Amino acid sequence: MTLYLDTSSLFKLYVEEPGSDKVRQDLAEAETVATSAVSYAEARARSPAFAETGSSRPRLLLTVKRDFDADWSKLAIVEPTSALCRTAGDLAEQYGLRGCDSIHLATFLDVARERPREETRFSSFDRQLNRAAIAALRHQRRSRV
What we know:
Blueprint: E1 2-5, H1 7-11, H2 20-29, E2 32-36, H3 38-53, H4 57-72, E3 76-78, H5 82-95, H6 99-114, E4 120-123, H7 127-144
Parallel strand pairs: 1-2, 1-4, 2-3
Helix pairs in contact: 3-4, 5-6, 6-7
């Protein structure tokens, strides 16, 4: 199984939040873990905000950054091409998504299209993005038949 993690799911691997256990469980079942290259910037942008709410802020932030950087090369990173960004724009309009969310959805659909015979699972903690992923994947599968 290939697991696609958007930033909300990816970040839960490094910071204990509601849903962290679910992401770890999905990760344990995955053969491949994919994400968009935009996840790097999004996760790094979230790190200082998280550390501000914690008690051991500076040390926690350094630990999260170190672990995240160490694991980054183990992921299947998908670079957003111009064509993917155009698809993301269409998906943003169709499903009312924010920019980076639409890039995650377009990336996931590309990953799923490249692996038609294997299960590709989408992991996000954004309800609107999850609904869009379900609808878009159904549409993609129907179009293939």
